[in-house]
């Protein structure tokens, strides 16, 4: 399964995402330059964290106008998976692929710390390996993560079940003291109505291996991989599967390996 990691001038988490997909999950990965006009047949496109174009005007505002974003929009419209992390989430908002906007953190300070997230949706391509209500520990590192929208649009967002993650206390409770940036309704991540575009401020790629102190973030990438595999696998009859025992065995081994990784990530 091929993942394309978009590189804007100022991106600094692109190699982290590439490493998780290429070396941890052992899948094909490539970089997409901001001037590229296609996504090079990638099935998953990730907009990584960083400071695209120096965050001039607003975080993500200039990046949203780069040539590659036209290709990303076409990919999303065709049902392709798109994941925006931190600055990538800001780019998705500025590009209109997700609703709402980011403001400066309520503290007016850059925040760099671990936070607790509560999974609100477990039926998305990116969360199918998680369960609703599950708590995840992930790092954040941003100055503009204060998600906002009008009360009416926030109500619509909630009604449409587009909130994927919220900031909570370690006990899973909504508590302003555990909201790192003052985001409206403790929103840490949202999706589009179709569920194939997800943006979140925390960094799952920075907690995808044991050596980093947490593997909670790996479940998001493993879920995306599982979704892509499921979408690609053709439906066959038992007789057809029996006629291809070697391939069936290889697919079973690959599926078991992915399931094991997802179980480790969701502990």
The fraction of residues assigned to DSSP E strands is 15-25%
Gyration radius, rounded: 18 Å
- Number of separate helices: 7
- Tertiary shape: globular
CATH class annotation: Alpha Beta
Largest sheet, strands/sense/barrel: 9 strands, mixed
* Straight-line N-to-C gap: 25 Å
Give the name of the CATH superfamily: Class I glutamine amidotransferase (GATase) domain
Q: Total number of β-strand segments?
A: 11
The helix/strand class is: alpha/beta
Write down the domain tally.
1
Average pLDDT, all residues: 91
Point out poorly predicted stretches.
237-241, 244-248
Could you walk me through the main structural features you see in this protein, from its secondary elements to its overall organization?
This protein has one domain (2-230, 260-265): Rossmann fold, CATH 3.40.50. It contains seven helices and eleven strands. The chain has helices spanning 14-24, 67-77, 87-94, 151-159, 218-232, 238-242, 245-265; strands spanning 2-7, 28-33, 44-47, 81-85, 101-103, 111-119, 135-142, 146-148, 163-168, 187-191, 197-200. The strands form two sheets. A nine-stranded mixed β-sheet has the order 2-1-3-4-11-10-9-6-7, sandwiched between helices. Helix 5 packs antiparallel against helix 7 (245-265).
């Amino acid at each position: 399964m091929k993942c394309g990691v978009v590189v804007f001038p100022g991106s600094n988490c692109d190699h982290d995402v590439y490493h998780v997909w290429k070396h941890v999950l052992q899948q094909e990965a490539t970089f997409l330059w901001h001037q590229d006009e296609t996504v090079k047949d990638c099935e998953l496109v990730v907009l990584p964290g960083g400071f695209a174009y120096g965050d001039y005007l607003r975080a993500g505002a200039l990046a949203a106008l780069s040539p590659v974003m036209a290709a990303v929009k076409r990919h999303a419209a065709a049902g392709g998976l798109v994941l925006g992390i931190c600055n990538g989430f800001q780019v998705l908002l500025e590009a209109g692929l997700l609703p709402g906007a980011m403001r400066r953190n309520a503290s007016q300070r850059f925040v760099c710390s671990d936070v607790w997230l509560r999974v609100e949706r477990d039926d998305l391509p990116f969360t199918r390996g998680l369960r609703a209500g599950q708590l995840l520990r992930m790092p954040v590192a941003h100055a503009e993560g204060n998600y906002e929208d009008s009360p009416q649009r926030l109500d619509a967002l909630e009604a449409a079940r587009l909130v994927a993650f919220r900031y909570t206390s370690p006990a899973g409770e909504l508590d302003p003291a555990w909201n790192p940036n003052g985001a409206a309704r403790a929103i840490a991540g949202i999706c589009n109505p179709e569920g194939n575009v997800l943006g979140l401020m925390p960094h799952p790629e920075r907690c995808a291996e044991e050596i980093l102190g947490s593997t909670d973030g790996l479940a998001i990438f493993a879920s995306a991989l599982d979704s892509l595999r499921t979408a690609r696998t053709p439906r066959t009859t038992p007789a057809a599967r029996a006629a291809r025992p070697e391939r069936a065995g290889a697919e079973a081994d690959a599926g078991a390996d992915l399931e094991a990784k997802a179980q480790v990530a969701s502990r």
